[in-house]
Amino acid sequence: MKKSFTLSTLMLLFSLLFSCQNKSSETAESESTVETETTASEEEQRPSPLEVKDGSIGSKTIKVQYGSPAVKGRAIWGDLVPYNVVWRTGANEATFIDIPQDITVEGQNLAAGKYSLFTIPKENGTWTVIFNSDWNLEHGHFQYDEKNDVLRVEVSPTWEETSSERLSIDIESPGLVIRWEKLKLPISIQ
């Protein structure tokens, strides 16, 4: 009787030990799955994807980084992006431009460096394009400070018949070209 009790006890302990090991590896597997899903979920939660573009205009190299919001059926100009108010020209953190050499923007000199890029949209006439020395702003225009403006230029927007769903800032002739919804804002750079 003592032998059968000991054998039964050993078998029970062995069963428990074996089942705990399986549960531990199942738990580890499910935890790693959760981490992967969380990481993927965080990336998917950014509704305005981060865009980075590099290019050249003549012999001048330029890099621009911005959040690319979508229209999503919304009224953009004068509504989502109000007129006569500084706009971060993108989404999330401030859009910035990195220029490793001096350039001219709309005929005015801009020294090599990194600058945040802001605009002031207007219902009629030219828009103000702003290059600000405080380029690493986590919350875009909420942290904008006019005293850090390095250059302000006036640029004429054009309105196209076709609509661009996502905001884009391309490095192409005549310099930087901002497109969103039916807006085309060409900023001349040399």
TrEMBL record:
Residues 24-55 are annotated as: Disordered. Keywords: Signal. Residues 43-54 have a biased composition (Basic and acidic residues). Residues 1-24 form the signal peptide. This is Asparagine synthetase B. It comes from Algoriphagus sanaruensis. The lineage of its organism: Bacteria, Pseudomonadati, Bacteroidota, Cytophagia, Cytophagales.
